[in-house]
Amino acid sequence: MKTIPSRVIAVLTLVAGLCGIVTASADERRVDRAWEAYVDRFITDEGRVIDTGNGNISHSEGQGWGMMLAQHYGDQQTFHKLWQ
After folding, report:
1. What catalytic activity does the UniProt entry give for this protein (predicted)?
2. By C-alpha distance, which of 15, 13, 18 is closest to 39?
3. Do residues 58 and 51 lie in contact, with contact meaning Cβ atoms separated by under 8 Å?
């Protein structure tokens, strides 16, 4: 069984949010849970966005995408953790 690459999940989450696809309160809760799942899976306590498909290394573009997503979802705590 193939798994969906982490970058695909991140991009789809971003596109869905930016396109305004998610508008109802139930949908907003799903997006909030999706963001929380993203943070839990890909952002370390030290503020690194990890590439789970490549030995848990970090990339500068991953940090940038993480900060953009955190800003989009209004998650200032995660944004600042990534900035450090």
Report:
1. Endohydrolysis of (1->4)-beta-D-glucosidic linkages in cellulose, lichenin and cereal beta-D-glucans
2. 13
3. yes
Residue ranges making up the domain that contains 65: 6-83
Of 20, 27, 8, whose CA–CA distance to 65 is shortest? 8
In angstroms, the CA 25 to CA 53 distance is 33
Q: Is residue 1 part of a domain?
A: no
Task: For residue range 43-56, list pLDDT tens digits in order.
Answer: 999 999 999 999 99
Asked, for residue 13, whether it belongs to a domain, the answer is yes
Residue 24 near residue 82 (C-beta atoms within 8 A):
no
- Residue linked to tokens 């869905």: 16
**33: in domain:** yes
Q: Does residue 57 sit in helix, strand or coil?
A: strand
